Amino acid sequence: MPEHTTRSVVIIGAGPVGCALATLLRRQGVAVDVYERGGESSGGSGHSFNLTLTSRGLDCLPRSVKRRLYLQGAVLTKRIIHHRDGAISTQPYGTDDAHHLVSIPRGVLQDTLRDQALRAGARIHYEHACVDVDTARPAVLLRDRHGATGWVEADLVVGCDGANSSVREAIAAAHPTEMWVTRDHIAHGHAEITMDYADADPTGMHLWPRGDHFLQAQPNRDRTFTTSLFKPVEGESRERHFAELPSPDAVSDYCATEFPDVVARMAEVEHDLTDRRPGRLRIISCAPYHHRRAVLVGDAAHAVVPFFGQGVNCSFEDTAALAALLARSRFASASGDPVDVTLARYSAVRVRAGHALADLSLRNLEELSEQVDSSTFLARRALERRLHELHPDLFTPLYQLVAFSTTSYDTAQRVHQEFSTALDRVCAGRDLRLERDAIIAEFAKRHGRGRFTLPRRPPPRPAGHRSRLGD
What we know:
Blueprint: E1 8-12, H1 16-26, E2 31-35, E3 51-53, H2 55-58, H3 63-72, E4 74-76, E5 78-82, E6 88-92, E7 101-104, H4 106-120, E8 123-125, E9 128-134, E10 139-144, E11 149-153, E12 156-159, H5 166-174, E13 180-193, E14 204-209, E15 214-219, E16 225-232, H6 248-258, H7 269-274, E17 279-287, E18 290-291, E19 294-296, E20 302-303, H8 311-328, H9 339-369, H10 375-390, H11 398-403, H12 409-427, H13 436-447
Parallel strand pairs: 1-2, 1-12, 2-8, 5-14, 12-19
Antiparallel strand pairs: 3-7, 4-7, 5-6, 9-10, 10-11, 13-16, 13-17, 14-15, 15-16, 17-20, 18-19
């Protein structure tokens, strides 16, 4: 059992989220021990895509970490759409320079945040699997690589162990009437493809939308690309499913038909799509996010599909919210508020946000695979962008609300539905291109009193953060 100074926290999971939280808690003077099932160099499942960070998640990290991530990641300002007819179009992510993504390999993000946690004084223990959780003591039962088991106690247990969370499963199994969990696979899966695309524009996310499936190429800092194919795994119609690609010849025919402009750059695509099974995508939700003195953070609480690119941003927002609440309740002091009361406040805020993001992410699949190839969709997005530029107090595009603001996901979802419904009424029966200025003028006239102004909500920041970036 680790020595305690004032208060102690055990974190299960040494991924980016666990390490980010460890740093924030160490800055409050809390003793932090992080236990990781895998080894120090464990590399994951082999099915991967870059993580996309936006200001929502980046601003929850210390300034020094944020600076390193910008140096190691690729800054993306737009989508680059490769249409079926060979045409290429672009869609800016926002309306100013702050509206961009940082595309970064998971391993790079992992190493950066692990190093930061170690420098902050957190202790990381590898090859220790969580077997059980006692939320009342609280304590975790750990099994090391030799098979030996033992309980480790702390003042707080945090599950940051991802979608396959042992902490979540242990709590739900022991207290099924006090924490519900749902696990849903979606029809789509994904496979990583090796593609030589070094001469492509490195400032945008490249998409090849093809109906119910799409190819995505994410730039890296070194001008390589992480490329993934998203499509249904199987189903009634086998035309566009992974199941219809059983042989190298079938893969070659498929890629030549769907992606003729880049098929020559996919030198290993037959191997990529036949020798490895596609990764399955799933949504995991639960409520509440805590039980007594144990709490879930990140994918352990809310695993979402990757189609909005917000999973890791939501997770970092979790860490900032939890750290801020613990600081406010004087957790580091023995005279602070009861931990279970603080965790209830955390659940009250973050459960709604996590459920909303799950819905938003699934809905965005249709946009990425099909709508971005539609002239009507593109005209609507151009109209919304211009409306926001002229009247930012009246209308904000959904992507900007979700990626580049601190408005909670659930509030962003609700307010944008109001935005969209009101704009639908003004657009009905009109040509979105030819009558754009008239539509904008009428919308402003109808809603000029700021009916849709967003509530201002400061982002959660741990105590001691001197600015949005901190040090």
